[in-house]
Amino acid sequence: MGYAWTTITVKDLEKSLAFYTEIAGLTLERRFSPTDGVTIAFLTDGESKTELELMCHHGEEAIEHMPFISIGFTCDSLADTMARLRERGDAFDETVYSPMPALKFIFANDPDGLRVQLIEQQS
């Protein structure tokens, strides 16, 4: 058995696609509308088989995410990622956490308020 994908319901698919491609570095693999009023986009990092599914129910305004759930992505440079977040006007906690010398991370919010952990690991 393998892990296939995580589904996130979003209000604005274009804003979410921009966040996850520009900040998390994912690539849009496929996009389709299975029914009227629903658009789905699958993104991947190009290396693993695991995908992120963004699902937009057009016209629905309320998106609720569990407050203690976050998803995490590695980045090459946390400083560069923070600069991109600032440029885009994305909300994030500027506190850099470093529980061990080779690891540091921050938390940002995606366009719908889901916590996203952005992680820099040094070898």
From TrEMBL:
Pfam families: Glyoxalase. Residues 2-121 form the VOC domain. Coiled coil: none annotated. InterPro entries: Fosfomycin_Res_Enzymes, Glyas_Bleomycin-R_OHBP_Dase, Glyas_Fos-R_dOase_dom, VOC_core. This is VOC family protein. It comes from Fusibacter paucivorans.
